[in-house]
User: Which sequence fits this backbone?
């Protein structure tokens, strides 16, 4: 399967809400790897948006989210705020009639996610979760390999995502919905969901840190005939690789499995096939998915429909319930 060239997607005029590190990566993706443009950046921290646009060399700066979504030159809004504050800015943009790309994890919990989805459907605007790995070339090739039965029936999936991030303030602050699960664990969870669907049973164990956020979590998802073993931690950098094993072979996805990367298919008959999905940045694929959807008159992604985003959020709610993770505003 060939992933469409992001540069060939219709051009949109983007606004970004939030001016942190991930917003910079999206700004680079939009301006360098798509035909779209960055026309506005908004931050509630005075002067931060201005510094951002000066650094990236494009866009108007706004010191409020309300002013950005009111800009008539903005077609689509990328929400890049902290997890506790995804739903509010998303609702602002939706109400203003903008198409919206919301950074993963989509919201803090499934109830917030449902509110945002309902608002977008009522307004008729396009809404998409920014789970960028879903739209990468190697992920499309993985789906195709499994659909073609290259490794037979899937028996197990293993994926882990760990980074040493305890020094990052937003990660250890519960009022910002910090911790490993929403920031890091969402990747292996979404990976398993993409390839295996909704689990029949979830078993999770985790350890909370002294601030109340989760330091690490281990999960087993059970499916008919298959299991997914997933792990996330903010206390150490793990291999960040993934393996899918089946009755006729396995697929090894290289570190880092959710970045543009490579994988190797190793069949029991001795045949080996390699796929190279490496690419710079990677965020351009999700931006192009939204642009194509808008141009085609759709209101959600065919690769990551909103119902799947809701399923993933409900899955994470169940994991949180099992490990006792509650945020202050809940």
Assistant:
């Amino acid at each position: 399967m060939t992933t469409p060239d992001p540069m060939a997607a219709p051009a949109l005029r983007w606004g970004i809400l939030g001016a942190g590190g991930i917003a910079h990566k999206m700004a680079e993706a939009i301006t360098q790897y798509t035909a779209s443009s960055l026309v506005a950046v908004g931050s509630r921290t005075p002067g931060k948006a201005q510094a951002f646009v000066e650094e990236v060399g494009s866009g108007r700066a706004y010191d409020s989210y309300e002013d950005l979504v009111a800009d008539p030159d903005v077609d689509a809004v990328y929400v890049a705020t902290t997890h506790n504050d995804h739903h509010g800015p998303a609702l602002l943009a939706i109400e203003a009639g903008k198409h919206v790309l919301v950074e993963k994890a989509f919201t803090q919990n499934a109830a917030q996610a449902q509110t945002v989805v309902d608002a977008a459907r009522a307004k008729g605007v396009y809404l998409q979760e920014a789970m960028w790995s879903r739209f990468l070339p190697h992920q499309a090739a993985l789906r195709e390999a499994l659909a073609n039965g290259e490794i037979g029936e899937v028996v197990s999936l293993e994926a882990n995502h760990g980074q040493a991030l305890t020094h990052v303030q937003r990660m250890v602050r519960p009022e910002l919905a910090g911790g490993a699960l929403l920031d890091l664990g969402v990747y292996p969870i979404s990976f398993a969901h993409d390839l295996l669907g909704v689990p029949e049973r979830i078993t999770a164990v985790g350890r909370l840190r002294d601030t109340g956020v989760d330091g690490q979590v281990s999960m087993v998802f059970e499916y008919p005939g298959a299991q997914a073993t997933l792990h996330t931690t903010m206390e150490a950098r793990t291999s960040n690789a993934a393996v899918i094993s089946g009755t006729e072979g396995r697929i090894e996805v290289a570190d880092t499995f959710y970045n543009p990367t490579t994988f190797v298919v190793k069949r029991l008959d001795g045949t080996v096939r390699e796929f190279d999905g490496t690419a710079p940045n990677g965020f351009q694929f999700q931006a192009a998915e939204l642009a194509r959807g808008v141009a085609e008159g759709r209101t959600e992604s065919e690769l990551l429909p909103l119902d799947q985003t809701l399923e993933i959020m409900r899955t994470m709610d169940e994991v949180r319930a099992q490990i006792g993770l509650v945020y202050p505003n809940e």
User: Anything to note?
Assistant: The chain has a mean pLDDT of 98.
